[in-house]
Design brief:
Layout lengths: L2 H26 L7 H17 L23 E3 L8 E3 L2 H14 L17 E8 L2 E8 L2 E7 L5 E3 L2 H4 L17 E10 L1 H13 L8 H9 L4 H5 L3 E12 L6 H10 L9 E4 H15 L7 E8 L2 H7 L1 E2 L2 E2 L2 E5 L4 E13 L4 E13 L2 E7 L3 H7 L2 E2 L2 E5 L7 E5 L9 E2 L13 E9 L5 E11 L6 H12 L11 H9 L14 H5 L6 H13 L5 H7 L7 H11 L2 H6 L2 H4 L7 H12 L1 H11 L12 H4 L4 H7 L7 H11 L2 H9 L1 H5 L6 H12 L1 H16 L7 H5 L8 E5 L7 H10 L3 E3 L6 E6 L5 H9 L2 E3 L1 H10 L5
Parallel strand pairs: 2-13, 23-24, 23-25, 25-26
Antiparallel strand pairs: 1-6, 3-9, 3-10, 4-5, 4-7, 7-8, 10-13, 11-12, 14-15, 14-18, 15-16, 15-22, 17-20, 18-19, 21-22
The structure holds 2-(butylsulfanyl)adenosine.
The site of 2-(butylsulfanyl)adenosine has 14 residues, from strand 3, strand 8 and strand 13.
């Protein structure tokens, strides 16, 4: 043997054992440790070497079989018709080459070629290549009798119980005319959304999360317990057939249409293409839409449409000569983690960022990836020097998916959070995670986020705060880009957002890149931002957890900055979509002396455009019963609270009642435990003080139940009592109630002679009947929506 032959033999042996090991992890354990692209490279290297040295090919080589052995715990299924694999095309040229080979193979069937090797074009069926798990479904007399994995292509695992749990796999075929025995082949996969939801659930329940939808689908389908499989959002898509005893159409496309007719899901993207150019157009079109598809695909598959021609072309080793997978650039790659740096964000969060050895992922060079927080670093088990899998999905920021442990170098270093802010040197503290009940009771645990305590004295936080403040959806100061903000902060001209309004012409024109016109433009746009709407201003402040929507809700409901600044967290939770945690963030923000002085300084320069009253809808939505229920007095829920309210009529009445044992014991509908709890609650001065403070504020804001009359008078449905029954499609009961109350109506739970109108959705029962008996006006949902629309209230 020559040296080069010996070297080739050694390399081939090494590649085979490495590929075998990866196959085992991928096919048997469902835990691949390298991305597909890396696997493909190893595989292609082996293929190339074997092509150069055909004498070294053995039947056991991974190139000669599909790979993977059946898990022993499942029964075995022998595939009477082997389940094949597909050859790959990466470049357009590969596909043209494939088409040339097809036409060559069909030379006898196709019309004669011309001088340039051209000729009649071949019709191909085109489908996306779904990234899941190949599955065989056997139907006998139209009934699903067996499901199997591909396994090594000739023997797979019996997963009948599991496939039956996949919702879009029919257990019985519909229609008629199906072959007596029909083996349907296709892909079981998980949609992107299903995958995200499942991972979120797993994370919550402390279960295992998956790196990508493919692994999630494979892991879910190959569960010994079919109940686990049933709980996972798996889907099936048919792309072909295996064993057939009976008649089928003569083209691949028509067969898939027949399958569809029998109730089997097929790809919505299935198309026919005439000739290779149309195939390439299909490839490009799907490639452009790849990110917006609901599921992941790693390429498209082209198949010669005519079955007669497929037979004519036949097979080569394990691949059909009549089909090919045209792959998209890989979205996962391996690279090295060179370092972890820490970035400081607007709220001071210190975020680890991975510095990577630059690598091409799906056509883009990636050299950084966010690591989110230190919990994520710990979850990944990341060390500096590690080889990591990075993934890029569309426009999404690249992510580090996993560490390849076997490639960890001896000198790998742990990732440590710095004790001091890398920007300003202030202390870095671990945040506390505060979860609150409705009444605001706090449950504190360690958070995942570390924070620089430097606030606006930290240049990083200051810059980010100002960038946010001036951004388009906030104060919308045009022409004040990130670079200019940096200059302004670095030069010391701006150390708070309020400083923007004191900038002089001389100061700006002296900055790098500024001339007369640009200076005047910038100063003009700063000037133009002096009269923002309240919502924009609130959003611009950058209150943690207060995005644009929440800012709008605050502005629209409370109407003035003063009210928002003073609002107690309990009062804030009366507003739509504001929970206790956000309410406390808002409160903490305005309690902070530094923030207060920044706002005071801003108000020297800014005039809010649209301050006004508390919105009538919310003003009218607070009732005494609701107020009491929200105090979270143990053992007193909504009904108990309503009873108390009906009896006592006011907060002071309830407080008095709670301490009057005799009166209390006569109150029906409150049990002993509840009475005891009520008495203890209002015996504590702190609770009384808090309840009174909330009440006082509700009064101030005009949101108090005793203000209801005032607010409600003049509203179109004032003085009327309405009843909602059945289900509404366009909105929830609560939303419908809030809208009716916004129009001045009271919403009651039962129908009586006093009821003005009943809104009845589908499923309405006795209330509807009673309304009919009493001759009360009844609206269906459509009429109700029309009424709301008349009064300017939409869905
Ligand atoms: S046809 C003989 N069509 O890709 C042809 N395969 O290497 C056999 N796949 O694991 C496959 N989408 O599960 C075909 N539309 C599609 C496909 C598809 C995904 C998978 C298949 C197999 C691999 C082929």
């Amino acid at each position: 043997m020559t040296t080069s032959a010996r070297q080739a033999a050694e390399r081939i042996a090494a590649l085979r054992s490495e590929i075998d090991a990866h196959n085992y992890r991928y096919y048997v354990l469902d835990e691949p440790t390298i991305p597909d692209a890396e696997y493909d490279r190893l595989f292609n290297e082996l293929k190339a070497l074997e092509a150069e040295h055909p004498e070294l090919i053995t039947p056991e080589s991974p190139t000669q079989r599909v790979g993977g052995a059946a898990l022993s715990a499942f029964g075995e299924v022998r595939h009477e018709v082997p389940m094949l694999s597909l050859g790959n095309a990466f470049a357009e040229e590969d596909l043209r080459e494939f088409d040339r080979r097809v036409r060559e193979g069909l030379a006898d069937q196709l019309p004669a070629g011309d001088l340039f090797g051209g000729g009649a074009e071949v019709e191909y069926s085109c489908e996306p290549k779904l990234d899941g798990l190949a599955v065989s479904l056997l139907y006998e007399n139209g009934v699903l009798v067996r499901g199997a994995t591909r396994g090594d292509g000739s023997t797979g695992e019996d997963i009948s119980a599991n496939v039956r749990t996949v919702r879009n796999i029919p257990l019985k075929l519909q229609g008629s005319g199906w072959p007596a025995r029909l083996e349907v082949r296709g892909e079981v996969f998980m949609s992107k959304a299903g995958f995200e939801q499942m991972n979120a659930r797993q994370l919550e329940s402390g279960g295992k999360t998956f790196a990508n939808p493919r692994n999630a689908a494979a892991g879910s389908l190959r569960q010994l317990d079919p109940r686990v499989t049933a709980s996972r959002p798996l889907e099936f898509c048919a792309y072909g057939i295996g064993l057939v005893e009976g008649e089928l159409p003569g083209t691949h496309y028509d067969i898939l249409q027949a399958l569809k007719g029998w109730g089997l899901p097929i790809s919505r993207e299935l198309k026919l293409a005439r000739g290779v150019e149309e195939c390439l157009a299909y490839y490009r079109n799907i490639g452009e839409r790849r990110q917006s598809l609901a599921y992941e695909i790693d390429g498209v598959v082209f198949k010669v449409n005519s079955l007669a021609w497929q037979r004519e072309l036949g097979f080569r080793a394990r691949e059909p000569r009549w089909a090919i997978a045209h792959k998209f650039p890989a979205s996962e790659e391996l690279t090295e983690l060179l370092d972890v740096e820490f970035q400081v964000g607007r709220t001071g969060a210190v975020t680890p960022v991975a510095r990577l050895r630059p690598v091409q992922v799906a056509g883009v060079t990636v050299s950084n990836a966010t690591l989110h927080n230190m919990d994520e670093v710990a979850r990944l088990g990341l060390m500096i020097g590690d080889t990591v899998i990075v993934r890029r999905a569309g426009d999404v920021i690249p992510q580090v998916m996993a560490v390849v442990l076997e490639r960890r170098p001896a000198d790998a270093r742990p990732v440590r959070i710095p004790e001091h802010c890398p920007v300003c040197g202030s202390q870095v503290e671990r945040t506390q995670l505060v979860r609150r009940s409705k009444s605001g009771r706090a449950n504190v645990s360690e958070g995942a986020v570390y924070r620089c305590v430097g606030r606006l004295s930290c240049a990083a936080q200051l810059k980010q705060s100002i960038i946010h403040f001036v951004s388009r959806r906030a104060m919308d100061i045009e022409g004040l880009g990130d670079k200019i903000v940096e200059q302004l902060v670095d030069s010391g001209l701006v150390s708070s957002p309020a400083d923007l309004y004191s900038l002089s012409y001389e100061q700006v024109v002296a900055l790098e890149g500024f001339a007369d016109l640009s200076t005047r433009n910038l100063l003009a746009s700063i000037e133009a931002s002096r009269t923002p709407s309240l919502a924009r201003f609130i959003y611009a402040l950058g209150i943690p957890d207060v995005g644009e929507e929440t800012a709008k809700v605050l502005a629209r409901s409370l109407g003035s900055l003063a009210r928002i600044q003073q609002a107690l967290p309990e009062v804030l939770t009366y507003l739509p979509d504001i929970g206790a945690e956000v309410a406390y963030e808002i409160r903490n923000f305005f309690d902070d002396g530094h923030n207060r002085s920044v706002i005071a300084r801003l108000l020297e320069h800014i005039r809010l455009q649209d301050e006004g009253e508390v919105h009538a809808e919310f003003a009218a939505s607070v009732s005494l019963g609701d107020f009491l229920a929200r105090l979270e007095i143990p053992f007193i829920a909504a009904t108990g609270a309503q009873k108390l309210a009906d009896k006592a009529g006011s907060l002071e009445g309830v407080i008095a009642l709670s301490q009057d044992w005799l009166e209390l014991s006569q109150l029906k509908g409150l049990n002993e435990k509840a009475r005891q709890s009520l008495r203890e609650f209002f015996a504590a001065p702190a609770n009384v003080a808090r309840a009174r403070a909330i009440e006082r504020q509700l009064l101030d804001f005009g949101m108090h139940w005793s203000c209801e009359k005032r607010v409600v008078e003049g509203l179109p449905l004032a003085g009327q009592t309405w009843v909602l029954t059945g289900t509404l499609e366009a909105m929830s009961r609560d939303q419908a109630k809030a809208r009716l109350e916004g129009l001045g109506a009271k919403v009651a739970g039962s129908v009586s002679a006093k009821t003005a109108c009943v809104v009845a959705g589908p499923g309405a029962g006795s209330k509807l009947a009673k309304a009919g008996e009493l001759g009360i006006r009844i609206l269906d949902e459509e009429q109700f929506l029309a009424l709301l629309a008349e009064h300017g209230l939409g869905v």
